[in-house]
């Protein structure tokens, strides 16, 4: 079972056609769509949101999404009426728990009240969507590689002054996650760390920074940072193994 991961459409008609052509092709075997926000630009145009909805109604692939910092106003209201986002709540689909937070600041709209927090226990073992990347994420690798027996990640290697140095994601902030924290880490693996990581998502999918992409790890959580789809990029994820392949649409 495969999912198409995409983000930051920003009103691109060309990308919209490519997205739905891709998922409509039986050879691609896409059974789920996961979108990390920014359908449009500054809440407009409404016609683009209408076209997205029209194309999705013609396709049976389930969609799970969170709003981006450009998703507010009437386009946001229209999309929420058609299909509520998973922001601040949990959806169950074929043994997968899906939740998330959005990225629209309240100051950009008098009607949308900003990111809705989620309880730490709702994060546990979830597929977690956010528009913005989590704090502490660095040194993204450009390919997915995982020990299929122990399920532990292999860290990427890079050349540094002729030598090979292991790259690890930096873990910061020793606070246990609460409703206002997406994901955090501790400097040392102590009791606080173990308690906090017990609430960690299985995988975290995010966008927002258009030209940044790759895979990183915070604790045991795989973080998939997507490049903007309006630039022609997306990813495919195997929902059983969580292995990810970045693609050009």
TrEMBL record:
One of its GO terms (molecular function) is hydrolase activity. InterPro entries: Calcineurin-like_PHP, Metallo-depent_PP-like. Residues 1-211 form the Calcineurin-like phosphoesterase domain. This is Calcineurin-like phosphoesterase domain-containing protein. It comes from Candidatus Berkelbacteria bacterium RIFOXYA2_FULL_43_10.
């Amino acid at each position: 079972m495969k999912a198409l991961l995409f983000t930051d459409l920003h009103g691109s008609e060309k990308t919209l056609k490519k997205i739905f052509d891709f998922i409509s092709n039986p050879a691609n075997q896409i059974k789920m769509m996961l979108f990390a926000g920014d359908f449009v630009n500054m809440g407009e145009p409404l016609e683009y949101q209408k076209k997205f909805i029209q194309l999705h109604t013609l396709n049976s692939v389930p969609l799970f999404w969170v709003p981006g910092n450009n998703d507010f106003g009437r386009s946001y209201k229209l999309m929420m009426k058609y299909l509520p986002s998973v922001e601040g709540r949990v959806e169950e689909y074929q043994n997968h728990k899906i939740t998330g937070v959005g990225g629209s600041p309240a100051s950009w709209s008098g009607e949308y009240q900003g990111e809705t927090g989620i309880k730490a226990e709702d994060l546990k073992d979830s597929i977690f969507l956010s528009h913005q990347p989590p704090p502490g994420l660095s040194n993204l690798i450009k390919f997915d590689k995982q020990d299929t027996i122990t399920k532990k990640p292999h860290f990427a290697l890079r050349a540094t002054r002729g030598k090979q140095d292991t790259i690890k994601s930096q873990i910061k902030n020793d606070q246990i996650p609460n409703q206002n924290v997406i994901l955090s880490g501790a400097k040392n693996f102590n009791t606080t760390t173990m308690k906090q990581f017990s609430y960690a998502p299985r995988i975290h999918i995010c966008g927002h920074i258009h030209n940044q992409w790759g895979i990183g790890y915070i604790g045991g959580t795989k973080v998939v940072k997507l490049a903007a789809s309006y630039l022609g990029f997306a990813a495919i994820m195997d929902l059983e193994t969580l292995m990810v392949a970045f693609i050009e649409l």
